[in-house]
User: What shape does this take?
Amino acid sequence: MHWADVVADKLLESGKEHVISSGITPSGPIHLGSMREILTADAIVRAVNDKGGNAKLIYVADNADPLRKVYPFLDEKKFKEYVGRPLAEIPAPDGNGSYDQYFLKPFFKSLKNVGVIPEVVDNYQFYKDGKYIECTKVIIDNREKARNILEKISGRQLPKNWFPWTFKDENGKLCNGKFLRYEWPNVYFENEEGKEIVNNLEKGEGKLPWRLDWPSKWKILGVTFEAFGKDHATKGGSYDTGKRIIKDILESKVPHHIVYEWINLKGKGAMHSSTGLAISADEMLQMAPPEVIRWLIMQPQPNRHVDFDPGLGLLNSVDRYDRIENEYYDNNLEENSSRAFELSQIKDIPNKKEQTIPYRHLVTLSQSKDSIEEIEKTLMRTGDINKLNKSEKMKLKSKVKCIEGWITNHAPESVKFEIQMNPPSIDFSEDDLNKIGELKKQIESITWSPEKIHDSFYELQEKYNTPAKEYFRIMYLTILGKERGPRLGFFLATIEQKFVVERLNSY
Assistant: This one.
C-alpha cells in the first residue's frame, strides 16, 4: 500500500474531517526541497478524500518570523538594517511590495501548476487580527508549566526571567529583551540599551517563540495532520515539545504526522534557501513537466532522501516517468508505483493513454526546429506519433517549453548543439574525405528513417572495416561542427535527406 494511503487509513480511524497543514518561512526562494513538504501533505489530502473522507489543505506562510541574516542573494548594504524585522514588514528585494510576498507569489503560482491549491494562512496577519490571543493568554497564565516542559524535553535551560514572548523593540525588530512585568494585554521589557518598551499582545506586537507558536497554530486551525522535515523531529526537538504544549497546556489533540527527508542537490548537499544552494520551485517547473515533479515526491517513501540532478539526471527522471506511464496503462506496475503515478497527476487520469513523445527526442528537436508545428510534422514523418489531439498538443508545447528552459540553464554541454547552416570549416584528412565519400553513397540511397539511418553506419563498418564511430564523428562534424551530438539515427531523420547529402557533397 502506498504511504499516503497508509496515513489516510490511520487518519480516518479518528473521523472523516481533517485539516492537513503545511508551511514554511518565506526567507528566500522556496525550493524543490520545500515543495516536498506540501506535495506530501497534498498526497495525503487526496488519499483521505479518495477514501470518502473530507480533508482540506492549509498552507501557513510564517511571515511573522524575522529576517535572521543578510542571505547571499541579498544586497548587504540594503538589507543589513532589516535583520530582525518580520518578513512581512520588509521591502521586497526588487522594491515592489513586501519581502514575504516577493517569494510567496511565485511559489503559489508553482503550486497551482502542480495541482495544489491550498487555503493560505498569513501568519503575520493572524497575529494582527488577534487569532493568537486565546492561546497566548493560556500559555502566559501557565508559563511556569510551559517553562518546565521546554526545559525538560529540550534539555536546555531557559533564562531566569524567561517570558513566553518574542518582543518587538522600538525599531520594529524581534528580540529577546529582559522581561520586566506583565499586565494583560501589555508586556513590558527592557531592550539592549536598557530602555523600557511595551508590547500590546492583543495587537500582535511581537510573537510567540517557535516552540509555542507551532502548537498554537495546531490549536487555532484544528490541525489533525502535518508533514515536517527531520530537523523538527529530533529527540527533544520542536515536535516533541509542541505535542506536550498542545496536550498539557492548550488542552487540544496532538496532530498525526509524517517526517520527510531532504532533497539533496547532487554533489552539493541538502537544498537551503539561506545558502543559495537550491533550485526554486518556479525554476524547476521551467525545466520539467509538473507530473514529473510530483512523481519525484510520490514515488519514494518520505523518510528517504532524494538526490536531484538538474543535469542529465533530470533527463533520466523524465524518461523513467514516461516508462512508468506506459507500464501503468499496460497494467504492468506493482501497486505502490501505480498509486504513485495516480497521485502524480495534475488532473483526472485519462481513460485512454495519450501519445507520449520521448523526452530525448524533444531535446533534439527543440534545438533543430523553429516551431511546435515543425516538431509535430517531423515526429509524424519519423513515425513516432500520429496526428495529435488538443490535449496532446498542449502537453507537447509544455514539454518543449520545459526543455528550452533546461537547455538554457542546466543542460550539460554534451547535449547542446546547433545545426550549422553553412558547412563548418574543418581541415579533414585525406582518409576522412574518403569516408565522407563512402557516407554520401550510403546516405543518398537509403530509406530516410531513424532505424535505416542507424543501420547504414554499421553496414559501412562491415563493408570498409572501419569502426562505425568514425563515421558518426565525421557526420557530427559536417552538420554540427563538433565531434559528438544527439542520437544520430533519429537526429538525421529529423533533417531533410537532401540537406545531409548536399552537406557531404560540399566537402
Q: What stands out?
A: The chain has a mean pLDDT of 94. The chain is about 45% helix and 10% strand. The domain at 430-505 is CATH 1.10.10.350 (Arc Repressor Mutant, subunit A).
